[in-house]
Amino acid sequence: MKLGQAVKMAAKSIFSNVGRSALTMLGIIIGLAAVIILVSYAQGQNAALRAYYDSMGTNTVQVYAYSWNSSVDVSQALYNYCQGLDDLVEGVTPNGQVYNDTTISYGSKTLTSQDWETRTTVYLGNDQYGLCNDFHIARGRDLSFLDVERLNQVCVLGAATAEELFSFADPIDKTITINGLPFRVVGVYESKSAGVNVGTNEENQYLLDEIKRRDRMILLPNTMTRYFNDNQSIEDYVVKVKSSDAIAETVTSLNGFLSGIISSDYGYFSVNSPQTYQNEQNEADAMQQRFLGGIAAISLLVGGIGIMNIMLVTVTERTREIGIRKAIGAERRSIIVQFLIEAAMICGIGGIFGIAVGYIGTLIVGKLSFGTILIPSPGVTVGAAAISVALGIIFGLYPAIKASGLQPVVALRAD
Amino acid sequence: MSGVTAMLIDVKNLYKIYNEGKESEVRALDGVTLTIDQGEFVAIIGASGSGKSTLMNILGCLDIPTYGEYILNGTDVTHRSDRQLAHIRNKEIGFIFQGYNLIPALTAYENVELPLIYQGVSIFQREERVMEALRRVEMDDRWQHKPAEMSGGQQQRVAIARAIATHPPIIMADEPTGALDSKTGRHVLEILHSLNEEGTTIILITHDNSIAATAHRVVRISDGRIVADGTREEVGL
C-alpha cells in the first residue's frame, strides 16, 4: 500500500469519528496548554525584580571604605590593588554622589534637586564607571583616565537627563552648568529602562520607576568631589568582577586587603555584593519554577494518560475492523502504518491547538497577573509538544501492533 | 460450471485442537481430508459447533491448523508468513460473512475499494473495477451510502461486491443468508450461483439444508470429521 493511500485512509478514519478524535485531541490540548501557561507564569513572575537587579549592574561588588588616617589614600590603594587582581576583576570605580543641592542648567532648562520629579543625581566616578555600573555609551565617549587626572570639567549624561536638557538636539560638546560651574558634555549613556518590560501592576511600576530613575544622572570625574562635597573623600566604590563565580573570591580578597590598610580604630570598611541578594532571589525563583514545573509535569502526565485511555479504547473497538482489513488482504505493516499516521495526525493537530491555547492562555495570564505581554519560551513549548505527541503516538500505535498480530479470525470475533 | 477441472484445494489430515493435552481439550477439526476442484459449488453443512466454520476459516487462511497439510492452488500454505497469507487472502479468496463485516465508517464504494487498494491497483483501474463489482450486485446506485444506511440484504450485496472486486478464483461464504429474510437470501444465493456459472469456485457454509440443496456437492461435518461427501442425493438431503 502506498503512503499517500495510508494518509488518505487515516484522514478518513479521523473525520468519520469526529467525537473520538476530538476527545483524544482534548487530552493533548489541555496537557500542553497547562504546561506552557504554568511555566510561562513562573518565568514571568519575577521578571520585574530581575530587571531591577540587572539595572544595578551585574557581577558587581560594592565597597564602602574610609580612613581617618590621612596617610592612607583608600581610593588610590583600592584602584592599584584591583589592577593586580586582573584575573578576577574587570574594573573598579569610585561611586560617589554629590550630596549637596544642585542646580543643573542648559540654556533656559533648569533641573534642581528640590524637584522630586526631575531630580538628577550627580555621580562621581572614573573612566571605568560605565563599565562597573553597566552603563553603555550611546553617543560621544565615556570619561577618560586623563579627565580624572587633569580635573577636566567634562561630564557624561544619563539618557533621561540628556533628553530633559536638550530635547532632540545633540548634547555633545555643549556646555552645561552645575551650581554655576561649566561642564562640557562628552557623552550620553544608553537608557537603562528602554526595553524593560515589567508589567503594569503597582509593585512592578514602582520597580520600573526605580530603574528609570537611574537614567536621571550626570557623571563627573571623581576628582570633582572637591567642588561639590566640601572636598570629602569618596567612600563608595564599585568593583566589577569577571563572572559571578569570581564574586566570592573577590569579596574575600578585598576584605583581606582593606583590613590590612584600614585599622578599625581609624576607619571603617565593608564589602558587599548585590549578587548575594540576586542569588537568593534566583534561588527562590528556581524553587518556584521547580514547583510549577512539577505541576506542569503532572498535568502532562494526566493528559498522557487520557490520550492513552482513548487510544486503547479506540483500538479495542477497532480490533474487528483490523480483522476485516486483514481478511481482505491487508498486510500487518499496512495496518500499523495506517494507525501510526492516524495517531500522528490526531496528535499533531492536537499539538498545534494545544500550543495555540497555551499561547493565548499565557497572554491572558500575563495581562491579568502582571499587566504585561508574556511570551512562552520556545524550548518549553517544543519540549512539551514533543512529549505529548510522542505519548499519543506510542499509545496509539502499541495496541495496533498488538491487534494486527492476531489471526484474522480472532480479530474478527472481537466485539 | 466450468468445463476445466483442476484441483484447487487439497487438504490432508487437518486438525484444529484447542487446549491440546489439557482436560479441556477441544478438537474442532479432527482429521479432515478434502479436495475441491476448480469451478465447484460446494456446501459444507453441519450443526453448530460441528467445526464447519473452523474449516472455512482455515481454508480461507484466516486461521492456521494445528496439524495437517493444505495446498491451495498448487502452493503449500500451511507454513506461510503472516504477510504471505495476507497476499493469498487478497488474491485467491473472496470472503462473505454472515455479519457482512463491512467497515462502518466507509461508504459502499470505499468498502469495495479496500481489497484493491491493498492489492496496489491504481486509482483509475480501481474506480472501474469497484463500479463493475457494484453493478454486478445491483448496488451501483448506492455507492456512496454507508453500511448503516443500507438494509441487511444491501449490505450483504456490497460485501459480495467486495469479495468479487479482485476477481478471486474462490469465494468463501460463511452463512451468507443467515441474517437475511428468505427473499433477500434467495437473491444472494442467485448471485453466488451466477458467479459459479462464470467459473468461480464457491464454498458455502450453512446449517440450512434447503440452501445446501442448491449446491452441486455437499460435505457434511460432525464433531470435526467429514461424515458424508457427495451430491445432495448421496448425502441424503
**Cα end-to-end separation of chain A:** 27 Å
Largest interface: A-B, 28 and 28 residues
The overall average pLDDT of chain B, rounded, is 91
As a percent range, the share of helical residues of chain B equals: 25-40%
Shape of chain B: globular
Main beta sheet strand tally, sense and closure of chain B: 6 strands, mixed
Looking at the chains present, what oligomeric state does this protein adopt? heterodimer
Q: Major sheet of chain B: order of its strands?
A: 6-7-8-3-9-10
Strand content of chain A: 15-25%
C-alpha geometry of chain A: elongated
How many helical stretches of chain A? Answer: 15
What structural class do the secondary elements of chain A suggest? alpha+beta
Low-pLDDT stretches of chain B: none
Query: Which radius of gyration of chain A do the C-alpha atoms yield?
Result: 33 Å
- The separation of the N and C termini of chain B measures 21 Å
Label the structural class of chain B.
alpha/beta
Strand and helix map with partners:
The complex is a heterodimer of chains A (415) and B (237).
Chain A lengths: L2 H14 L1 H28 L1 H9 L4 E8 L6 H11 L4 E6 L1 E2 L5 E4 L2 E4 L8 E5 L3 H4 L4 E4 L4 H5 L4 E4 L1 H8 L8 E4 L2 E9 L12 H12 L3 E5 L3 H4 L7 E6 L5 H15 L5 E6 L1 H44 L1 H9 L4 H39 L7 H27 L3 H6 L2
Parallel strand pairs in A: 6-11, 8-10
Antiparallel strand pairs in A: 1-12, 1-13, 2-12, 3-6, 4-5, 4-9, 7-10, 8-11, 9-10
Helix pairs in contact in A: 1-13, 2-11, 2-13, 2-14, 3-8, 11-14, 13-14
Chain B lengths: L6 E12 L7 E12 L3 E5 L6 H8 L7 E6 L2 E2 L5 H11 E4 L11 H12 L3 H14 L15 H13 L5 E5 L7 H16 L3 E6 L2 H4 L4 E6 L2 E6 L1 H4 L2
Parallel strand pairs in B: 3-8, 3-9, 6-7, 7-8
Antiparallel strand pairs in B: 1-2, 1-4, 4-5, 9-10
